[in-house]
Write a sequence for this structure.
């Protein structure tokens, strides 16, 4: 009793210390539960971050496109006319006033980077080989901030001046081309351009590696007959989760079509969400079983200590004091269990990262135990402990001292 | 200062309800003056424990008036009753009196800790002094369950006196002890009674001990059958 703690804390601590075996067992029980929760949370968030990162390595967070053209019949609704509306074939169009729009969006605090792109279909021809590709005309510095192309280069450099192109490793393989080789791009209406390959990239997606050919914005504009125009504007955001919200706002303000990554990857996002929901369900039931464990140990403890409770009550301890002593025991068990559990989870994660490796020996994905997660677990487990102690603590408080002392 | 530490008037206590209701105490009148050293005797089932629980404010009478140190308990709610019990009454039970998770010194300080909410130097000084007085000054850091039965009862007496109560209630305090230890414990209570004028009410089966008290109150079938002053 060297520490000048309140009476309830001293009594709660001494009771736990005296029932050493019981306390230890339940703390280990809580620890295992907390370890599973922390391990699962860290694993899941690491996995999801990794999946999202891979998915977005070749996709902008938001893409702005011109509104689709629609057919407007001159006779709006003549009752006796059999009218079949045929949807327009969408031709390549430019975004109006794209420079102004670009500069305006650049000023929004939520937007990290803005990159105008002129893109369209073309053929890549080299010798006998010919492949259907997508030409993307970019301003490399801006584009790099949306999709980190420089980091993904496997050869050469990101240089797309006049007569230069950067292609994917898959296309390079198909065409048997390397950095420094020539490549001819030709579009449907006959224009063509011969370019020198200055770099090869690997964006981690076979389709993208076979299809995307990056050229300078001007090269693409003249090749695609979009002189002075761009076909889309790619955006990168500071907060991924706001993409859909922001896309709607931009669409509302500019009248353009704004597609967020959440919408273009709807199935993927649904899968992530349901994964998160099922893990929440599991976590909830683990917390519940931890709570029942704490409660059952404390119920037994109240019965074992009924005589001591009676004596304390005879000495003037109030019902409220008895209640707090047992609530605190629940909280303390929860707190120490969560510390043990965090330690356990941390060791598991270290082990996991040592064992779960890609075939090439690099870590499969990076998992970090954030201090926030440990604090949440500690706080959560303490609260669960206190809640679990509610019933036994009430029993202790309402124990009739006469009955308790007679034992 | 109030002369009567304890004043009972027409105390009745019933248990159960309806047809099954049984009356254990049938109108008890009893006064204890400051400094009295009284024995409460009687066969088992006579209502001794019930009476002691009422006097100890662990239970309320069904009817009648009960005053402790001049305070009528009928006007007090449960929390006030608990506070009054902690401050004005000390208990010594038959056995397992102490809380084993605490040392002898901490057990003695416990009523003060319960009342004040936090430990302080003063309560340990008081506890140490009381333990010296019961001859256990050297054992104050011993955990309660490492003391012998007689030593435990001596610690319990020190604890009962910690709040300087008006009345100490002892329920068979020597019931579990050999005659030598019983003698020691009894003498100790007698000493505190003489030197500090603390009032004691001792329930006992032992006629030898009862004979060494100043007054013997005999309870039979819920009535006071005899109440005699010894000289």
């Amino acid at each position: 009793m060297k520490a000048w703690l309140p009476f309830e804390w001293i009594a709660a601590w001494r009771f736990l210390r005296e029932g050493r075996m019981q306390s230890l067992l339940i703390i280990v029980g809580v620890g295992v539960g907390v370890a599973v929760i922390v391990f699962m949370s860290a694993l899941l968030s690491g996995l999801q971050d990794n999946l999202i990162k891979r998915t977005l390595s070749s996709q902008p967070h938001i893409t702005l496109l011109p509104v689709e053209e629609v057919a407007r019949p001159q006779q709006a609704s003549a009752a006796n006319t059999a009218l079949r509306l045929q949807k327009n074939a969408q031709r390549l169009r430019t975004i109006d006033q794209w420079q102004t729009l670009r500069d305006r969006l650049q000023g929004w605090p939520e937007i990290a980077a803005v990159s105008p792109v002129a893109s369209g279909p073309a053929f890549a021809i080299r010798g006998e080989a010919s492949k259907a590709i997508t030409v993307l005309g970019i301003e490399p510095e801006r584009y790099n901030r949306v999709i980190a192309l420089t980091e993904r280069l496997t050869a050469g450099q990101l240089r797309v001046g006049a007569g230069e192109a950067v292609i994917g490793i898959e296309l390079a393989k198909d065409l048997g081309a390397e950095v420094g080789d020539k490549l001819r791009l030709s579009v449907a209406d006959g224009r063509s351009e011969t370019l020198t390959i200055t770099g090869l990239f690997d964006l981690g997606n076979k389709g993208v590696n076979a299809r995307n050919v990056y050229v300078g914005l001007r090269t693409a504009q003249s090749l695609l007959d979009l002189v002075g125009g761009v076909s889309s504007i790619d955006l990168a955001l500071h907060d991924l989760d706001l993409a859909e919200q922001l896309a709607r706002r931009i669409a509302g303000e500019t009248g353009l079509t704004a597609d967020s990554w959440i919408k273009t990857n709807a199935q993927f996002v649904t899968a992530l969400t349901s994964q998160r929901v099922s893990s929440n369900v599991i976590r909830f039931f683990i917390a519940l079983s931890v709570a029942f464990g704490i409660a059952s140990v404390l119920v037994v403890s109240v019965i074992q200590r009924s005589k001591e409770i009676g004596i304390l009550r005879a000495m003037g301890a109030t019902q409220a004091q008895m209640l707090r002593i047992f609530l605190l025991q629940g909280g303390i068990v929860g707190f120490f269990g969560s510390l043990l559990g965090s330690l356990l989870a941390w060791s598991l994660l270290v082990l996991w990262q040592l064992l779960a490796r890609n075939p090439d020996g690099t870590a499969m994905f990076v998992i970090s135990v954030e201090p926030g997660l440990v604090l949440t677990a500690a706080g959560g487990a303490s609260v669960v402990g206190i809640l679990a102690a509610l019933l036994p603590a009430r029993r202790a408080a309402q124990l009739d001292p006469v009955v308790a002392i007679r034992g | 200062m109030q002369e009567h530490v304890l004043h009972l008037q027409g105390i009745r206590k019933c248990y159960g309800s309806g047809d099954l209701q049984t009356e254990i105490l049938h109108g008890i009148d009893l006064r204890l003056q400051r400094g009295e050293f009284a024995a409460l005797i009687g066969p088992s089932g006579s209502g001794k424990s019930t009476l002691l629980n009422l006097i100890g404010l662990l239970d309320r009478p069904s009817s009648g008036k009960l005053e402790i140190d001049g305070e009528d308990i009928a006007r007090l709610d449960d929390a006030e009753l608990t506070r009054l019990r902690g401050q004005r009454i000390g208990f010594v039970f038959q056995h397992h009196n102490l809380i084993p998770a605490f040392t002898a010194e901490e057990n003695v300080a416990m009523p003060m800790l319960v009342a004040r909410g936090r430990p302080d130097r003063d309560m340990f000084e008081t506890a140490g002094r009381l333990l010296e007085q019961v001859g256990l000054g050297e054992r104050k850091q011993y955990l309660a369950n490492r003391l012998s039965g007689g030593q435990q009862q001596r610690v319990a007496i020190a604890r009962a006196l910690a709040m300087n109560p008006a009345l100490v209630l002892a329920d068979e305090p020597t019931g579990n002890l050999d005659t030598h230890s019983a003698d020691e414990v009894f003498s100790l209570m007698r000493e505190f009674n003489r030197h500090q004028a603390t009032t004691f009410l001792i329930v006992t089966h032992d006629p030898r001990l009862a004979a060494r008290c100043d007054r013997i109150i005999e309870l039979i079938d819920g009535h006071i059958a005899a109440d005699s002053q010894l000289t």
In short: The mean pLDDT of chain A is 88.
